[in-house]
Amino acid sequence: MTSSTHDQHAAHGPMQHGADDAPPAMGGGINAMAASATLHCLTGCAIGEILGLIIGTAIGLSNVATIALAIGLAFLFGYALSTLPLLRAGLGFFGALGIVLAADTLSIATMELVDNAVMAAIPGAMEAGLSNPVFWLAMMLALTAAFIAAYPVNRYLLSRGKGHALTHHYMHDAQPADWRRFIPSLGSGALAAVIVAFMLGGLVVAATSGLDTGGGHAAAPEDSRTVAVTMTDSLTFEPGEISVAPGETVRFVVTNAGEAVHEFLIGDEAAQAEFEAEMSGEDMDHDTRSGVSVDPGQTETFEYTFADTDEVILAGCHEPGHYEGGMVATIQVSD
To answer: Measuring CA to CA, how many Å separate 288 from each of 33, 41, 57?
Structure first.
């Protein structure tokens, strides 16, 4: 170890060891520091969870795998938002990451526990897709509860010289002169604005997506009808015939009672032929607005708004050999 390096460690040593002996004395008080620490974690958690749900839905992951991905990304983005200020202050990446892991893990874990518990407790929230306003309203409530739960945790840690107190020892007002000056410095107000804009943006997009009545997924009104469908390995849908009104939005609750993967895809004969052709071409990227693919023993829920004209359309399964084996249901659209 060089003489200069030894001197630097010696200079920092008393400050770091003193962190466990006395609570921090920062401007704005411990309450403001706790709120800022909680907002850093909350913003990262919100971004990570939504991104995880988007990715999971896009690539067709199961509900369990999607939730696991969302939680993993919540930790990743939560850590990232707390690492950025330390990098800006001059720390190396691994040094900053080590501090953040010690400072934020309990806070993020508390948020994820409360957030997912609230989402699970709200009827229909876990089954609602990103295009359903129910999901965004439930997420707003869950994140609010997560903030309320994590705030006292962060305040307690700060009062003991732990948590985000570990990061504040490295903060200073000097502006970095190198590439670090391009790292954004986000205050509590900016973080709160990011969360609000993120949630409201998702809610608005979800609400407006339900205005399209040309056939496909839509946010179902509270009084919409629910139709339960069971799929079996004998290549049947139960019921095999369904009647709906023109323009009606129906919530389908589709259960796979078999041991093989099954689909419930809605469309006319031409659409079913396209689905079958996609299957034959080993391209299973079906239009997700048309229905769901359900793993064995699982249940999936989706909403479908039918066209305003009388017609007879079909629901089919296009797993290999299933459609040609007769796994088809009839949907009569008429008054």
So the answer is: 44, 32, 9
Q: How many domains does the chain have?
A: 2
- Pair (163, 258) in one structural domain: no
- Kindly state the tokens that stand for 31: 């309450």
The tokens for 177 are 């002169």
Smallest CA-to-CA distance from 272 within 309, 323, 238, 233 is with 323
The two structure tokens encoding residue 135: 């999901």
245-294 per-position pLDDT tens digit? 998 999 999 999 999 999 999 999 988 888 888 776 554 454 456 889 99
The SS3 of residue 222 is coil
Strands (E), 214-258: 225-232, 236-238, 241-244, 249-256
Q: Which residues contact 231 (CB under 8 A, 6 or more apart)?
A: 237, 238, 254, 255, 256, 257, 258, 262, 264, 294, 317, 327
pTM of the predicted model over 0.85: no
Q: Shortest CA distance to 84 belongs to which of 193, 171, 24, 16?
A: 171
Residues 77 and 197 in one domain: yes
